[in-house]
Design a protein that fits this description.
The protein has 222 residues and is α/β, with parallel strands linked by helices. It has one domain: Rossmann fold (3-Layer(aba) Sandwich), CATH 3.40.50. The radius of gyration is 16 Å and the shape is globular. 41% of the residues are buried. The protein has a 7-stranded mixed beta sheet with strand order 3-2-1-4-5-7-6, with helices on both faces. It starts with a helix and ends with a strand.
């Protein structure tokens, strides 16, 4: 599914979020930089937007992994065109079977990807495994506004407008219907914090973004 929409993925992300996704990523990068990580793993990297932002913030080495070959191809193409002076590596890899040793990375990130994990618990444990003690995982993910009328507007927008526009541009309406259902079924907020706790992380917290449309989750490995 993600292979089919790879070439229009960036445009649609920015269009359907009214460009707010860029601000969310910037905030997450600023939080990540508080620990001054030297080596960061970006899981479900997609076309590499978050990995590029992390690298541009001064991180010495960034590794981006994704299960979609076409997404990785787009990321590599963007790297060659605009970021070839940066130390960024893109690899095809399964988030639930990361091809890295234990305690390798100073930090890990996931932007709008954990809701797509086939087994969320295994994926979170993999994130925990590959970061060093004292490391941090920063996750951005869609959530749901709690208050009327914004919650209702959000529901209608994601259920009807997003698949309609996404289908026109990407020629794959099914993928953007999936977006609504994946967000609707995701255990956001405190429910996701519980998942992070069970994976081994500690001192975990969530930061709501833009009326609760999305959240940044911070998870630590002691």
């Amino acid at each position: 599914m993600f292979d089919k929409i790879a070439k229009s993925y960036d445009l649609l992300n920015h269009l359907l979020s009214f460009g707010i996704d860029k601000r969310w990523r910037k905030k997450a990068v600023n939080i990540l930089q508080q620990n001054n990580p030297a080596k960061v793993l970006d899981v479900a990297t997609g076309t590499g937007d978050f990995a590029f932002s992390i690298s541009m913030s001064g991180v010495a080495e960034v590794v981006g992994v994704d299960l979609s070959e076409e997404m990785i191809n787009v990321a590599k193409s963007k790297f060659k065109q605009h970021y070839s002076d940066k130390n960024i590596i893109f690899k095809l890899a399964d988030a639930e079977k990361l091809p890295f040793d234990d305690n390798v990375f100073d930090a890990a990130t996931v932007a709008f990807g954990v809701r797509n994990y086939e087994n969320l618990e295994i994926g979170l444990k993999e994130l925990y495994r590959v970061i060093k003690p004292g490391g941090k995982t920063v996750i951005i993910e869609f959530s749901k506004p709690k208050h009327f009328p914004f919650r209702n507007i959000y529901h209608l927008y994601f259920k009807y407008f997003v698949p309609f526009i996404g289908g026109i541009i990407s020629k794959d309406k099914k993928a953007y219907r999936y977006l609504y259902h994946s967000v609707d079924n995701f255990p956001y907020g405190n429910n996701f914090i519980v998942k992070l706790d069970k994976a081994g992380f500690n001192n975990n917290k969530s930061i709501p973004l833009t009326f609760g449309i999305a959240s940044i989750y911070l998870a630590n490995k002691s």
